[in-house]
Fold this protein.
Amino acid sequence: MLATALLAAAVGDGLPETERAAVPTGAPQPNTQAGAAVQYTASGELRRPEGYRTWVFVGASLGLSYREGARADGMDEFHHVYLRPEAYDAYRRTGRFPDKTVLVLELHEAAQKTAPARHGLFEGRRVALEAAVKDVARFPEQWAYFSFGDGSRETAPAFPKARCFECHRQHAAADNVFTQFYPVLRDGAH
């Protein structure tokens, strides 16, 4: 952690001094790679997208699940979905996600009863970090899906086609993406 901080201080973050002071300590840092290409390892694994919390936040859900055995009371996990800004802009204009689209799904346990709160739920610890990538040249079906475990893994292989792709193909409202769950994408697209 200290080495990272020292390196960042030496290299800089590309922000003017006036803007750097406005970013609170510990807050997600501005994504200087928002337009960076999708990155894979030599073996074809996806590198974990960095800076995704500065991308377009397209929506959240609580307890939405596609698997058997999920909690019926809806208090399973918070889901947050982020979309690269250039893909968001293209989708708003055309209703299609362009090649190299990346969506990140971050899942947090639903936590409650932590002082001083007396009621309600909040995002607890992160339990999963996943990504959907549209890469026409790399994937015969155009889309592939990846899991970085709890987010600590730096790379991830694509899930087998049967794991995510078929469900997305059959049930997604637009171009293999469940836009029906996210008003930012669902309402007023193109």
Notes: The two ends are 43 Å apart (CA to CA). Residues 1-35 have pLDDT under 50 and may be disordered. The first strand starts at residue 46 and ends at 47. Strands lie at 46-47, 56-62, 77-83, 102-112, 121-134, 143-147, 155-156.
